[in-house]
Protein: Dihydropyrimidinase
Amino acid sequence: MSAFDLVIRNARAVTAADQFDTDIGISGGRIVALGRQLAAGSQEIDAAGRYVTPGGIDAHCHFDQPTGDGSVMADDFVSGTRSAACGGTTTVIPFACQQKGQSLRAAVEDYHRRAAGKALIDYAFHMIVTDPTPQVLEEELPALIAEGLSSFKIYMTYDALKLDDRQMLETLAVARREGAMAMIHAENADCISWLTSKLIAAGHTAPRFHASSRPMLVEREATHRAISLAELVDVPVLIVHVSGREAMEQIRWAQGNGLRVYAETCPQYLFLSAEDLGCDDDFHGAKCICSPPPRDKANQTLIWEGLENGVFQVFSSDHAPFRFDGPDGKRVHGENASFDKIANGIPGVETRLALLWSEGVLAGRIEPQTFVELTATNPAKIYGLYPRKGSIAIGADADLVIWQEGDHVVSNAALHHNVDYTPYEGMRLRAWLALTLSRGEVVWDGQTPLAGAGRGEFLACERPRPALRRRRQEELAL
Ligand code: URP
Ligand code: ZN
Ligand code: ZN
Structure:
């Protein structure tokens, strides 16, 4: 009888703290031993000469999320989690989105039905709070947080989703009281709608004007306001999908002044720019429409610096899958719809880790340990999944990635999502994923997705330690 179900031999293991050469002994889906010359496993994998990192946690992705405008997300929990697994991600946290007028619990129950029996890898949920009625704030939200949905997103833009400042304060006060992590989409809705009407009136309708309708100021103002509201309530918050300098300056200011403001950025802000939104007669730019929009090369450089110097704690995909062709994706409002009618969001759940490993670690911009922090350990801590997820440690789930260095050209034909394009088509990378293990099971062997639909488990999240408020001397009566 073997000592382990599986042993990974000769790994160059990377955690958020260290790199070390080790064998990894796995039994019952968990890491049970780390050390040299471990006893035999029933199965053995040789990782000699290769880095092994914790399976990625994609803490911001959208699968099968109802949209309300007729558009349909191309990825459900089967294709979305398959794509994630093939890209080295072993845990996803998509969003159960409340529709205005709907109970939050009904939104969560609906989302459970969409995921159950489908997900290939483990998953948790964030909530999106769009209608903070007394019933939601006093009963549903506290109960759902206690049941393991310990984070929620608040929007400051999009008519169907946004909260006003008063509603934000009331919702943040619940996060503070209950110990949940509040995530904020920070863009000023009125600035966007005013600029949009001016642009449309002037006949500027092409996809590239999406960026003109959401300049950095719009993000900066909302980021500052979100930070101020969180400071007033005295609650930690996380600003999602930060695109560049102006929002970063607000975040750095807050962090420097002792406020617990966390921040997330995404591949699109490192690798895309407003130029990718095309020219006046080019609808292909719709493929890169997301909010906030990609900025310019100088901002890409600043985002790289923020990943390296600690402004950002989390690197997520914000995978929002809409097909370019067909009636219910990017063109839901017609072949050449104006920029404000094009479905927002770009795909990226499968390319997130390889882009950052290749252009971040192997290109010498960030340390391997920083990569692990940003893609696995910090998301696990910030969303209450640590130490089960997010590290290579005894007792943790055996969610692991083995890297294969060598030339790899990104091609949508080789990806596993259900979207008909990738914004990174043709990019030359220095590595790709040789193998993904989810709870000790090979779910991607470098060639073929191997997991069956429904093997993924729902993860109830703890209240995250980084969301715990610090006591102030003059406690607010909230
Ligand atoms: O454009 C984006 N980012 N779409 C996804 C939804 C969101 O706001 O994260
Ligand atoms: Zn958002
Ligand atoms: Zn998103």
The chain has a mean pLDDT of 97. The chain is about 30% helix and 20% strand. The longest strand covers residues 4-14.
